[in-house]
Amino acid sequence: MTNVQEYRGHIRNWEALCQELEIWPGLPREDMEHLILTKAYKKWGYDMADHLHGMFAFALWDVDRQQLFCLRDHFGTKPFYYYQTADEKLLYGTTIQKIMDQPGFVKELNQEMLQIYLTLTYGAGEDTFFKGVKKLLPGHYLIWKDGELKIERYWKPEFHPDESKSLEDWADEIHTTLQKILPEVKTEKEQAESFLSGGVDSSYVLAMSDIKMTDSCGYDEERFDESHLAAETARILGRENRRRCITPEEYFDTVSYVMYHMEQPLGDASSVVFALACKAAAEHTEICYSGEGSDEFFGGYNMYRNAERYGENLKNFYVGNTNIMKEDEKKKILKNYSEDVLPIHLVEHIYEETEGLDPLTKMSDVDIQLWLEGDIYLNVDKMSMAAGLEIRMPLTDRRIFDIASRMPSKYKVDSEQNKVAFRTAAAKVLPEEIAFRKKLGFIVPIRIWMADDRYNQDVRAKFHSEIAEKFFHVDEINAIFDEYVGGNSDNWRKVWTIYAFLVWYEEYFVKR
Prior knowledge:
Strand order of the largest sheet: 1-2-3-7-8
CATH topology of the largest domain: Rossmann fold
CATH architecture of the largest domain: 3-Layer(aba) Sandwich
Helix content: 40-55%
Number of strands: 13
Distance between the termini: 40 Å
Low-confidence stretches: none
Radius of gyration: 23 Å
CATH class of the largest domain: Alpha Beta
Number of domains: 3
Shape: globular
Strand content: 5-15%
Mean pLDDT: 96
């Protein structure tokens, strides 16, 4: 007998699994997915994740073996945490707050994470900002039995380039695979909307779905506002579009909300916009589609076009999509700096796993294993949950990754374009000007708002606060801030990353 102790997620291939595991598909969703988990565990044991598609993190109590079995999905779309108490009990859950609320938890700051965070803008690896609280990493499961903890890796990204296919062959495979996946993302009875930007990912997902209403964010600052592109895409595809205009006042008013619900500091300025987008969407839907995953799988970032230029030197510096502060700068601003805590240590095993593969594949794998889990999926999960919204990501799927893992890099990026094969697939249902539109990213006017004295007063206050004094040489971080306000807009990410940490620390170690 097996009991579900903890579960968050959406099992995408539930219909096929119900048939194989002899489960009546008419059950309420939660009951049905709990049955899928327990029966899959009985049938396939520790290999059960090989048979599941979707987003999931769960804990099962095996009554017969008297052991706990916890598992996190392949890409880490849903979080899972655990903590061993002084009296050798295991606390666990899909949120850190659930662990914090249990007897035996002792709240202490893991200060080493600040050093990692100031480079990456997120907490990478298995450690968290709370001492002793660990993340179960993507593609791993945990067994707790008789007071002993065992963690195993059941899946990792692997790449086997196939040179036998043409660009059109790869585009066809992407397209036909997405056609198979989309009907699984929701049932006919479920009502959903879709986030829509000006980019190809959300546009392609929308074009392949039956979604009628789309949700977009915009700003009064025209050079940062993509919402008109989203509205035009919706019009072309015959869908409706709802625009949420975000003001600098509500943006800054939302920062503490974001850092509290994120549970760890995240220096991604777009997370605040995403939080507001989730709140707005949750007013009229419970489910929303989003387009995360394809950039890392198919070479979507502009920096990937420089991969060949970096060559073997990658393993000496490339730690992922973000690299905000170098070690020399962190030494200057941090009161406690350790030579042994380096972000590059987090990716050494990835470079060992990709030995002999091309530079683009190495960069992609670093971002799949660190950036997606530590930033993108964390943001999606935490902000949607806080708003009471469920987000489903059709492009984050092992069947989509399987294509990317076999695709040669020449079909991912070239000298002119990124995501070449993916865009070619999207062009089957989108006008070329949308499918091949230059990637803009999730841009936010924070770089100009934070330099404006009408909006940055809390930033100034935090940079001079007692909290800042605990961790930073205040003169040094204010020199960065003053240089930014004085016109060096390149410093905005450094300022924001420090500010986000200070807000988070106040939420968890001062107010609570």
